[in-house]
Amino acid sequence: MSPQSLERVLSDLAERADQHLVPDRVATVHRRARQAVVRRTGAAIGTLAVAAVAVVLAVTSGRLSLLRLDGEPPAKQHSVVTTPQAPFLAVTLKEAPALAAAVPPQGLSTTVVVLVSIKGWVPQPVDAAGEPAQVATDNLLGLKMEWGTDDFDQTRAQYSCVPAAKLVEVDTSFPMTHHYPKPGTYHVTYTTAACAPVGQVVTTLTVTVKPAG
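Above: the chain's sequence. Below: its structure in token form.
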């Protein structure tokens, strides 16, 4: 066998020997593989632990604002119930020229419209059957408008007062119209009433009526 052939045979045998590990080397390789697995498992467990701690901290920090410093839950908050105000009744009168201009004229008279606004808390009256009034103006014991030439009187005799009646709110506005036959200055007086302790309320407005046309 030539030296070149012998060298090739020896090289082949060396390469084959490299592909087959001896027992000691196999054990070493297995041990290193197990160590690598342990390291990767430990790293994964560490990552999960950190994530769990982060979740606990997030939940805890979210609850800290709901706990007092002593660790007890905050006292329950009760809704505030608005109680009715003390009984009262306020009436305002205001002339409304724009509304008067929209009213069809009656002969040579001058039309005046007064806007009546009523606000307050009054004891609720009842009808003959003992049923409480349901409409806001029904909680008032009638109304009377004195225009200075004639009067408008509306009495609500169907309602009466009862002891310890519930307070109800009155908040309403409505226009009242009158035709003055001649120009001049007139005192318009509105009178209404409610059950005690409110009683009668009188309000006056001065209007100046110009000639028609």
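The longest strand covers residues 110-123.
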